[in-house]
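> call design_seq(struct)
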């Protein structure tokens, strides 16, 4: 559980990234934290994990004040940053040194995820690996910690296309009911089919915090052929296959969420989206 109450945060001599932000993440979901570049996704995750301190308000993560970074909280959270620091040691040594910080670390899982990522040589020096390869090791490690809360900042950045697809498979096989995973991205497509709850960060506030089920209950994603049929849509996008639309789901029809259309629809209709989801 993560709880932010009336949080105000600014970097030194900068205007606030967040002013009076309140947010509660409870339940074991895979959250997709979406937002344009520079909206504050990294900052928010750093605040939640106690790496940055809010000037006002309170942040509790896993039952502890985040900024205190008490061992009890630290063994429950794993933060995978976008810019990773790795020491100049082998993968095998990395596992030996860092696994003991996490009481529920599973060597078996770590090896399974590494195998899925096709990294078999545990004697290679991590520092000498490519950015994408390092990322794979840390994603595998993060999931194997079995921490209750895992933050992943732009995890698919730097992965090539086949690796992105393996990443989704690894995440799916690791998703269980015992943890929260918060994944930030501005490449919304990469998260498709992975996440069950969407958080959209926009202009310093949470524009949307809803499960995929809640979203498809309130919004309908469709494809129509004529402009006329699309005229009531909140958002429409012309493609070769027709006009993709996002509309209010007044007739309670079933449809499949498209994360990119949702994101564009939300940013293009801020007031309406808040009204529909009564934020
Ligand atoms: P995102 O992760 O959504 O791209 P960030 O959290 O990195 O956004 O950044 C939010 C805002 O804070 C941006 O305007 C960025 O320029 C600014 N910012 C980020 N890090 C720093 C820093 N260390 N010092 C000053 N400003 C920063």
């Amino acid at each position: 559980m993560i709880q932010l109450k009336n949080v105000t945060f600014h970097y030194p001599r900068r205007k606030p990234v967040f002013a009076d932000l309140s947010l509660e993440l409870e339940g074991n979901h895979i959250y997709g934290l979406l937002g344009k570049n520079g909206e504050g996704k990294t900052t928010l995750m750093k605040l939640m994990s106690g790496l940055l301190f809010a000037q006002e308000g309170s942040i509790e993560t896993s039952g502890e004040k985040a900024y205190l970074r008490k061992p009890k909280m630290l063994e429950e959270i794993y933060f995978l940053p976008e810019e990773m620091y790795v020491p100049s040691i082998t993968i095998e040594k990395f596992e030996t040194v860092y696994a003991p910080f996490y009481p529920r670390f599973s060597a078996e899982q770590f090896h399974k995820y590494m195998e899925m990522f096709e990294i078999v040589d545990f004697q290679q020096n991590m520092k000498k690996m490519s950015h994408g390869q390092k990322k794979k090791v840390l994603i595998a490690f993060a999931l194997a910690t079995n921490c209750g809360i895992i933050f992943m900042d732009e995890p698919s950045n730097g992965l090539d296309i086949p690796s992105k697809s393996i990443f989704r498979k690894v995440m799916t096989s690791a998703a269980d009911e015992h943890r929260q995973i918060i994944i930030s991205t501005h490449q919304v497509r990469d998260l498709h089919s992975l996440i069950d709850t969407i958080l959209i960060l926009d202009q310093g506030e949470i524009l949307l915090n809803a499960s995929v089920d809640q979203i498809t209950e309130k919004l309908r994603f469709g494809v129509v052929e004529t402009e006329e049929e699309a005229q009531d849509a909140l958002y429409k996008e012309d493609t070769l296959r027709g006009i993709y639309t996002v509309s209010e789901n007044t007739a309670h029809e079933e449809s499949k969420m498209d994360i990119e259309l949702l994101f564009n629809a939300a940013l293009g209709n801020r007031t309406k989206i808040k009204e529909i989801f009564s934020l």
